[in-house]
Amino acid sequence: MNKEKRYDNSEAYRVMAKFYDKLMGGNKYPGWKILIADVVEKYNIPKGTCLDVACGTGNISNLLIELGFKVIGIDISDEMISVAKQKFPGEQFVCVDARNFNLGDQTKPVTLVVSFYDSLNYLLSDDDMLQAFKAVSRNIPVGTIFLFDMNPMDHVQVAQRFKPRIFEESEFYSIFRFSGEDRFWVLDIDFFVKEGEFYRLIKEKHIERGYDKGDIVPLLEQAGFNLLEVIEEHKIYEDNKKHLSRLYFVAQKNSIKKRR
After folding, report:
1. How many CB atoms lie within 10 A of CB 89?
2. Residues 171/194, Cβ–Cβ less than 8 Å
3. How far is CA 200 from the centre of its chain?
4. What is the largest CA-CA distance in the chain?
5. Helices 29-42, 59-66: crossing angle, 10 deg rounding
6. What percentage of the chain reaches a pLDDT higher than 70?
7. Which domains does the chain possess?
8. Mean pLDDT along residues 16-39
9. What are the tens digits of pLDDT across the range 191-232?
10. Do β-strands 225-236 and 242-253 pair in parallel, antiparallel, or remain unpaired?
11. CA nearest 96: which of 137, 55, 63?
């Protein structure tokens, strides 16, 4: 069996979109805003249009707006895009597959591309990841910076053994159960959504694949990017040990000469 193809994320975020902002919290976003600002300054990125890949409900888009960018956000979940449009009606949000999209003619070229909160880990095979990188490359000018994060294998293998977690709000509560094997981290969510005096149970499954630097760099190069740097983030997990919890890749679209 091809283990890269056995999982399916097609049902992810159908329910979670409505509660995403409450479930995810905001503790990571201030640090991400600093990271984006530092990359913008370090690489002299013009404050033009930023493409937010797998934008979700637009929380990263909000950081980009605060930093002076106009935003084009794309996401495969129509439910997530609907929330983003309601939150930021002045920006452009489109429901498309990150593996195959076309922005069309833009009045201003994209000067920065970002993807955060391990969104690209939802691409479960090398081929899917490569197609996404190629799609990004097709839609941006040469020289554009691509900043994205990735959950590495160290994180995934520890997260497979996380204890169940319960989140409770006035209109719902949910139970997160973690599992998985090999490169895959599986999150099963039971949502109990309040409807009058009763609660309706809705189940949702999320799967991520772990990717290390050695997995990502060849795919970036095939898609026409040069790796500029990788920033590591470490964290102490439930086992009281420090692990590599997240990788931040900074890449740049290169100029590819046509073969004769």
Report:
1. 8
2. yes
3. 29
4. 71
5. 50
6. 95
7. 3-152+212-253 (3.40.50.150), 157-207 (2.20.25.110)
8. 88
9. 999 889 899 998 999 999 999 999 999 999 999 999 999 999
10. antiparallel
11. 55
